[in-house]
Design brief:
Distance between the termini: 35 Å
Number of helices: 5
Helix content: 25-40%
Order of helices and strands: EHEHHHH
Strand order of the largest sheet: 1-2
Strand content: 15-25%
Length: 126
């Protein structure tokens, strides 16, 4: 498959800043519009959505406290941060059975034939 064969578009949300200082600090900005840009191919505009990546971001924030706002659970070294993200995605895709799939995403995609244990994941990282 060539890049030119892929239908790909980006939806960029436009946010407006809250008016008062207290709201600006603790509340997210409001979406005041969207800008759809076709990157390649001929994508169907009604299927262009930010929902998938927003769900992925929420899952990552909820599973790893270092991504939540106003926290001190950050990584002091970029390598530690990269390893934490890699461990999260490895666990999420190979070790955790998802309710809707009734198996792991790796099993659903044909990348694995079993649910990985934490021991298998740690041994792979060695």
């Amino acid at each position: 498959m060539r890049i030119a064969d892929i239908d790909y578009a980006m939806l960029q949300k436009i946010y407006g800043a809250p008016s008062d200082e207290e709201t600006r600090r603790y509340s997210p900005a409001k979406c005041i519009g969207c800008d759809l840009k076709v990157v390649s191919g001929d994508p169907d505009p009604k299927h262009v959505s930010t929902s998938y990546v927003e769900r992925q971001n929420l899952t990552m924030r909820m599973h790893m406290r270092r991504f939540t706002r106003l926290t001190n659970g950050h990584s002091k070294k970029i390598d530690n941060h990269r390893h934490a993200v890699a461990l999260h995605y490895m666990f999420y895709n190979f070790c955790r059975i998802h309710q809707t799939l009734r198996c792991t995403p790796a099993m659903e995609a044909g990348l694995s034939n079993h649910v990985w244990s934490l021991e298998e994941m740690v041994l792979l990282a060695r």
